[in-house]
Amino acid sequence: MRDILPDVERWRARGERVAVATVVSVAGSAPRRPGAKLAVSEKGEISGSVSGGCVEPAVIETALQVIKDGKPQMLEFGISEEENFEQIGLACGGTIHVFVERLDW
Amino acid sequence: MSALYEELKQQLAQERGVALATLVRSSSGQGIGAKLLVFPDKSFHGSFGLPELEARVVEDAEQAIWIGEPGTRLYTLHEQTFEVFIEGFPPPPRLIIVGAGHIAIPLTTFARTLGYRVVVIDARAAFATRERFPHADELIVAWPDEVLARMDLNPSTAVAILTHDPKFDEPSLKVVLSRQVGYVGAIGSRKTSQERNERLKQQGLTDEQLSRIHAPIGLNIGAKTPEEMALAIMAEIVASRYGKDRTAILDWSRK
């Protein structure tokens, strides 16, 4: 939370809406622990990370949708390490759940 | 809007403990995204719309403030299940040193390096000087037990009692052991510690309270110089923060 605060504050000061994605659970080996956050601004700027790169594009897309409709979403990413390495080229396996919500609380 | 966020931000800025609980799944699909902001005294702001669920989550969230390991928990209530993500934000760790003697100087340095806020308390103005402790966050010349009684002592607080003088050490221990601090250690040999325990017991402290004192203070690394003693104490404080007892320290098979 503390790591994304300065950017979130900057975007909010500009009047932009913000979504926050949080790793809420992790099974197997995953690059970031529960609590890791990625903030996304209305214009698509990002701060923080939920996986070190592997799932960020999908999370950002969802975050922009959540900013628009305000409906929180739970995303699940479960990629075996071999599959992941072939498809995305990053060595991060495991299953993670990422909760994406608009910062309007 | 944004009232809880603003409050969370403020708690973090003021370095006060707080936990945030978010309803992330429910069997009915209702209430997703609802939040509770939970304070150390178990008061809370926000709502899940279900007082019974709130009461249970607040209990867990209060503990999570100090543990700082975020995670989801499942709650079942009236045949419905709720998944709540709870993350605790402990305040930065703080070390209170009672007794501004020769060990306290390197101990302040080590603790500061490890990210602790350091408060040094001593009634003796000749010891507790800025010249000796330029690096302490706070330097207080007063009776330590009186200062401690007024302080916010919590599980992120470690207390090292180092005066060697029962008239300072014992009243301080009585205050600290009446609260829930993360670590308390007191200087003195095994014999001194035993005698101190007996006196404190006569003054009404329980065996459970006395068992929380790390004494003799510090890990047994053969420390001889003040710097080495400070290292032994600091290592013990870190170990205790992560729940390692003395027997686990050299055992890599234990998590």
The residue fraction in helices of chain B comes out at: 25-40%
Q: Number of domains in the coordinates of chain B? A: 2
Strand tally of chain B: 11
Task: List segments of chain B where confidence is low: pLDDT < 50 over at least 5 consecutive residues.
Answer: none
Give the CA-CA distance, first to last residue of chain B.
Answer: 43 Å
Query: Span from first to last CA of chain A?
Result: 15 Å
Rg from alpha-carbon coordinates of chain B: 21 Å
Figure out the total of helices of chain B. Answer: 8
Q: Name the strands of the widest sheet of chain B in spatial order.
A: 8-7-6-9-10-11
User: How helical, in percent, are the residues of chain A?
Assistant: 25-40%
Element-level helix/strand string of chain A? HEEEHEHE
Counted beta strands of chain A: 5
Uncertain spans of chain A: none
Under the CATH scheme, the architecture of the largest domain in chain B is 3-Layer(aba) Sandwich
The largest pleated sheet of chain A is described as: 5 strands, antiparallel
Look at the structure and name the CATH superfamily of the largest domain in chain B: NAD(P)-binding Rossmann-like Domain
Strand content of chain A: 25-35%
Q: What's the average pLDDT of chain B? A: 94
**Main β-sheet, spatial strand arrangement of chain A:** 3-2-1-5-4
Notable features of this structure?
heterodimer; A: 105 residues; alpha+beta; 3 helices; globular; B: Rossmann fold; 8 helices; 36% helix; elongated; XdhC_CoxI (chain B); MoCofactor_Util/Proc (chain B); XdhC_Rossmann_dom (chain B); Xanthine and Co dehydrogenase maturation factor (chain B); XdhC- CoxI domain-containing protein (chain A)
